[in-house]
């Protein structure tokens, strides 16, 4: 094979494949990197199966057991915290998806006064450190003497999810063919019918992706939640509180299950995307 | 359809639809905008106001425009402020060095499996942040699965320990926020026109020159975005410090959290948060001026 043909076959690698052994540096590094990335995850899964005589996770490996999967919901506080997390994630993701999608529609469709401000607020919302957002929300709730709990958690989670949904949906909206909507309107559909029957089905994958992202961000949030939770505990808050006294293995089992759920959703999304292309 | 309408109606209709067009974006923005106003913009202003008040939890707080507090908190906690910048900066540098080759590899060699590799990169995000940090603590624990084994093999000395040191905190942050760096890097590397790289190669640039003079400059926006997206949460984080850092080496996030939720010193904590916010805002605006906000949003 001539050099020209080799270069045509692999257009990307700059000067690739000429020296023998250096070729392997990058792939080896990728392998090590993936191991580095995965090892805490593997440990989490592993420690869910570790025997623990005091029902507290220990560093030492003490033998395989499925006890913690069977006793998954035995710690009532932990189960309640997980339930809170799932509820807050579902409710806040739903609200944020609606509000964020509307903002994305406005940003892509219209040029209006305040366009730049909207952009800026969304950007600031994502760029602002969580601790500042948490501290500012606490300042507000303390000043207004609002009782912190489930309600304030929802308010906070919707707030930090809106921008992420808006940006995700907007990314999918930019390639949108407006002529389809115009065709629907020419055929006598009113704006609502047009939106419901034409626009929504087209942007739905983007909206769904935004909603799933919001759900994931909400279920994982710790810092902001720790400022606005009052006496209500979410899953991450409970886990953090348990660190000092010892972590029960159930935490790792629940973490594993949440992880698996996320992975299955992500793979489904990937496969669906590939099928569409 | 229009034939059945009175002659003046179409005229009436026209300004209405135009008004509708003008109002439509605002109606779409309003619900989300109100929510963000109430729970994002206003709270920031309230926080600044609280930082200038004096009083106590029992007697209540009142506005006294106590600007001196800023001087006091910075003086009292400058060690933690500097340490946060130091840890955040080190962790950011570490993620940059660790993830650049990966992003480069996926962008240039990923082929059809790019999406799969990107998903792999994101996998840690499917594990709860607190659990991820706990797991990382297990890896670093003195008699844990990694360090303990290395000690048993005699590679590390018996007295060696990482947990409860600054190193543990920095590596924990670097692990936790890695995707914030790797993804923007990937996006910018992916965008590079391959023909430019080929042209450099045709003009007898060697690999090193291609990397330093072609690829790195073109990837600069991604590097900036990644640095910003990693450094901001890294400098404000207190979870890694709390779980991995022991009782010393506290960062500014720990102090804010403690002043707010343990000591109920709302004004002091609000002042510290404001300092953190202003410091980071200056950085963000400097960035936005240099590269434009639209530019950075592509990487978020």
Structure notes:
The complex is a heterodimer of chains A (277) and B (300). By secondary structure, chain A is mainly alpha-helical. Chain A has 12 helices and no strands. Chain A has helices at residues 3-9, 25-47, 67-70, 76-109, 115-127, 130-143, 150-173, 178-186, 191-220, 223-228, 235-243, 249-276. In chain A, helix 4 (76-109) runs parallel beside helix 7, helix 4 (76-109) crosses helix 9 (191-220) and helix 4 (76-109) packs across helix 11. Chain A has 2 domains: 3-69, no CATH class; 76-247, MetI-like fold. The longest helix of chain A has 34 residues, at 76-109. Helices cover 73% and strands 0% of the residues of chain A. Chain B has 300 residues and is mainly alpha-helical. Chain B has 2 domains: 2-51, no CATH class; 69-297, MetI-like fold. Helix content of chain B is 74%, strand content 3%. Chain B is built from 13 helices and 2 strands; from the N terminus they run H-E-E-H-H-H-H-H-H-H-H-H-H-H-H. Chain B has helices spanning 9-51, 68-109, 114-122, 129-140, 147-152, 166-176, 178-191, 194-202, 207-236, 239-244, 252-261, 266-291, 293-297; strands at 53-56, 60-63. Chain B has a two-stranded antiparallel sheet with strand order 1-2. In chain B, a hairpin with a 3-residue loop joins strand 1 (53-56) and strand 2. In chain B, helix 2 crosses helix 6 (166-176). Chain B is globular and about 75 Å long. Chain B starts with 8 loop residues before the first helix and ends with a helix. Mean pLDDT of chain B is 85; it is low at 7-16.
| CATH structural class of the largest domain in chain B | Mainly Alpha
Low-pLDDT residue intervals, each spanning 5 or more residues of chain B: 7-16
Oligomer: heterodimer
Looking at the structure, the CATH topology of the largest domain in chain A is MetI-like fold
Proportion in helices of chain A: over 70%
CATH architecture identity of the largest domain in chain B: Orthogonal Bundle
- CATH topology descriptor of the largest domain in chain B: MetI-like fold
C-alpha-based Rg of chain A, rounded: 24 Å
Unreliable spans of chain A are: 1-12
Number of extended strands of chain A: 0
Summing up helix and strand content along with how strands pair, one would put the structural category of chain B as mainly alpha
Tally the helices of chain B: what do you get? 13
User: What is the number of helices of chain A?
Assistant: 12
Compressed to H and E, one letter per element, the order of chain A equals: HHHHHHHHHHHH
What fraction, in percent, of the residue positions of chain B are helical? over 70%
């Amino acid at each position: 094979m001539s050099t020209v043909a080799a270069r045509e076959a692999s257009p990307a690698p700059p000067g690739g494949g000429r020296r023998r052994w250096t070729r392997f540096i990058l792939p080896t590094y990728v392998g090590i990197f993936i191991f580095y990335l995965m090892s805490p995850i593997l440990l989490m899964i592993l420690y869910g199966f570790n025997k623990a005589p005091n029902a507290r996770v220990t560093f030492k490996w003490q033998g395989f057991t499925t006890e913690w999967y069977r006793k998954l919901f035995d710690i009532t506080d932990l189960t309640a915290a997980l339930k809170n997390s799932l509820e807050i994630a579902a409710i806040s993701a739903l609200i944020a998806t609606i509000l964020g999608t509307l903002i994305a529609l406005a940003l892509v469709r219209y040029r209006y006064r305040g366009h730049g401000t909207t952009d800026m607020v969304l950007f600031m919302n994502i760029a602002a450190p969580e601790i500042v957002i948490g501290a500012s929300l606490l300042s507000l709730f303390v000043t207004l003497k609002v009782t912190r709990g489930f309600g304030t958690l929802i308010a906070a989670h919707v707030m930090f999810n809106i921008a992420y949904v808006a940006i995700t949906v907007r990314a999918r909206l930019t390639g949108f063919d407006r002529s389809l909507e115009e065709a629907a309107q020419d055929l006598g559909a009113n704006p609502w019918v047009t939106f419901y029957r034409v626009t929504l089905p087209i942007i739905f994958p983007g909206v769904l992706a935004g909603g799933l992202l919001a759900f994931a961000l909400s279920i994982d949030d710790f810092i902001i939640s720790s400022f606005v939770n009052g006496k209500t505990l979410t899953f991450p808050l409970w886990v953090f509180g348990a660190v000092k006294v010892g972590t029960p293995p159930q935490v790792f089992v629940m973490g594993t299950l949440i992880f698996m759920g996320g992975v299955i959703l992500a793979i489904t999304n990937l496969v669906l995307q590939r099928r569409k292309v | 359809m229009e034939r059945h309408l009175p002659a003046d109606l179409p005229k009436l209709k026209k300004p209405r639809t135009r008004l509708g067009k003008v109002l439509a974006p605002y109606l779409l923005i309003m619900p989300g905008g109100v929510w963000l106003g109430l729970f994002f913009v206003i709270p920031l202003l309230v926080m600044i106001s609280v930082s200038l008040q004096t009083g106590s939890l029992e007697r209540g707080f009142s506005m006294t425009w106590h600007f001196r507090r800023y001087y006091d908190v910075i003086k009292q906690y400058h060690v933690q402020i500097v340490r946060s910048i130091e840890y955040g900066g080190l962790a950011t540098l570490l993620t940059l060095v660790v993830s650049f080759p990966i992003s480069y590899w996926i962008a240039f060699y990923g082929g059809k499996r790019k999406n799969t590799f990107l998903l792999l990169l994101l996998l840690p995000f499917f594990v709860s942040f607190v659990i991820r940090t706990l797991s990382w603590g297990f890896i670093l624990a003195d008699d844990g699965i990694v360090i303990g084994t290395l000690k048993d093999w005699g590679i590390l000395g018996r007295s060696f320990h990482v947990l409860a040191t600054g190193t543990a905190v920095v590596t924990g942050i670097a692990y936790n926020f890695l995707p914030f760096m790797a993804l923007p890097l990937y996006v910018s590397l992916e965008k590079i026109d391959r023909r430019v790289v080929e042209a450099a190669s045709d003009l007898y640039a060697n690999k090193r020159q291609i990397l330093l003079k072609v690829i790195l400059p073109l990837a600069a926006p991604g590097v900036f975005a990644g640095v910003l997206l990693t450094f901001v949460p890294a400098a404000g984080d207190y979870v890694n410090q709390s779980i991995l850092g022991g009782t010393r080496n506290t960062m500014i996030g720990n102090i804010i959290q403690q002043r707010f939720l343990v000591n109920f010193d709302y004004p002091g904590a609000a002042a510290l948060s404001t300092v953190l916010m202003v410091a980071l805002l200056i950085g963000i605006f400097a960035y936005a001026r240099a590269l434009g906000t639209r530019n950075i949003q592509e990487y978020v």
